[in-house]
Amino acid sequence: MNQQTDILPASLDKIIEQLAEHGWVVDNTLFSAQAIRQLQQCCLAQWQEGRFHEAAVGRAEQQGRRSEIRSDSVLWLEPADAHPAVAHYFSTLDQVRQAVNQAFYLGLEDLESHFAVYPPGSFYKKHLDRFRDDDARTLTAVLYLNEDWPDAAGGQMRLYLDADCTQSLDVVPRAGTLVLFLSDRFWHEVLPATQQRLSVTGWFRRRQPGLAWSS
Fold it and tell me: Where is the Fe2OG dioxygenase domain (predicted)?
């Protein structure tokens, strides 16, 4: 894959402006159709190889499968992954990390990320992305890999825009759409879909004083 990793300054400026104003942004400019297709093919190949596992909720000893809360399956990714599509994904989002740090002094140092596959009928109930006992996750990034996704298929991410969850934005999971939002501020959920739904979900994390990183 011919990788073009330099993001246009105008795209980064728009992301920073929207994050400053709203705390969230929906972008369709950072990833080319080719980059998304390569990620989709990588995701599906590993899905077919049986490398995914059912997603859990919580962390450490509280972690467990809760099918009434979420019913997707995930495969964790590493920046050193040999697949060029995954390397391109991490390289692109690292430019976002640097721009966000420069603008907001958040001290983001790490991106943990996984492929997520939602079989038909799967969902993820309303939740926040920050753990109660660990505030490292600071900025959530969700990138969709679903080409030609029809509105009638469902599967939207419903992002709640206020603390009382009375206002919301539904994001259709179409290929190339990237959603960024502050992890501790915005409740959100994944609505059931009528067909398989693919995404890459990541969290920019800040280092905790005196603590080692954990996944």
Answer: 107-206
